[in-house]
Amino acid sequence: MKHSFVIIIAVLLLTFKGSFTFAQWKQNEFIIGTFADPNLSKPANEQKDIAAFTRAKDAYFNLLTGPQFFTGASDFSMMDRELNIARKTNLKLLMIDSRMYITRDTFNNNKADLLIDHFKSKDTDYKDALYGYNFGGEFPKQLSPNVKKWAGYFKEKHPGKLVYTYLLPRYAFNSDAAYEDYVDGYLKSDNGANAIDIAAFDFYPFIGGDKVRDKYFYNLDVIQKKSGTRPFWVYVLTTKHLVYPDPDEYQLNFMSFCPIAYGAKGLIYFTYETLPKGKVDFGEGLIDRNGRPTPKYYIAQRNNHYIHDILGPIVMSSQLMETDHVSNEPTLEDVSDQLLTRKNKYIKKINDDNILVGIFKKGTEYNFIVINKARNPVAGLNITLSAGLGSQYFLSPALKDYKGQADFTVTTPALDKARNAIIKMDLSGGEIRVIKVKG
Fold first, then answer.
1. What is the pTM assigned to this prediction?
2. Where does residue 136 fall: left (phi above 0), alpha (psi -120 to 50 degrees), or beta otherwise?
3. Under CATH, to which class is 319-438 assigned?
4. Cβ partners under 8 Å of residue 101, min gap 6
5. Where in the sequence of the chain do the CATH 3.20.20.80 domains occur?
6. What is the pLDDT of residues 346-383, one digit of tens each?
7. Would the N or C end of the chain have less CB density within 10 A of its end CB?
8. Domain 31-317: assigned CATH number
9. What span, in angstroms and rounded, lies between the C-alpha atoms of 141 and 192?
């Protein structure tokens, strides 16, 4: 009997080997990350480094994606310094290394093990600070087998750590079909162990004034649908370069909040620190080249605070039911398959064409994330919610001058003849509010 029991256990272990070989990474909080992390001091000054990292934390960043202008790694000294400061400031860090050329044929198990073994040895002291490995991103379709192969290898060798890469935007392709084929190449996998953990992508929508590049909302919708059960993250542009203007408050609001209406669970700011001068003339990011906050830092700080306190907990704990546009205004993108219709079971009517709504549900509670996509303010906005969703209505605080007063206020809606609830509010350009409905 004991021999038979051992055989049964062995069979079960073989059956489930593919699914439970190692612990999977799991996202537990909304991620607000930096591209171009706080610069380490030269010569090394730990107090200066702590102050620089603390400034990022004060703006509600919780993930550093690696020192992007670090090249020519000959040892681990710089990343070890980063890990040490991240641990002391309670920040998470993705390991990046110029020896980690996972898409080159010369990259092999020995080179991967050199990196993994070093950082795995840091688990005791830096386990919470070391969030995972950053492969880089925007790789073409033909490299997807290599990227997925090494994703599986790193995850197996260092369980529980994120293996991160990010995808190209729709505007890098000639057609929707070509783009979706490219996305499938990275997000579909014959082996679950090799699956990419996150569906991240960068799409910078503003290309002159308030003109929005076509397919922005299509891109959000496609990634949301193809990401499946994995979270997706979106990049927010902060720096003027190439065809992209220097974003102002309205544009930063738009880029930060629209992805959240689609269920994004992370934002990465490109860039946090201002990049060095080079072939591309990058403008200022959130921190200038002298280490001082720019005006955009304070806008991001307020927005991130609002996300940290109000939006993030909703997105992380709720199910996205749908995302609806009232019309294609103001971007004029064809969003016909995402339009609010008369048959919508949650919303009966919205009296402004520039509104975007993400509808989230947790148990019997509904949260309607409402965004004004336009630069012009909306005064006297009426959102008519279907009768029967609940009997208690609450409104989140306004974004402007938000400093942590996170409590929702009770609001008493007007009722139409069918007893649908009419919620009233005003929204500034790019502003976001949340309507909460409880039983």
1. 0.93
2. left
3. mainly beta
4. 107
5. 31-317
6. 999 999 999 999 999 999 999 999 999 999 999 999 99
7. N
8. 3.20.20.80
9. 19
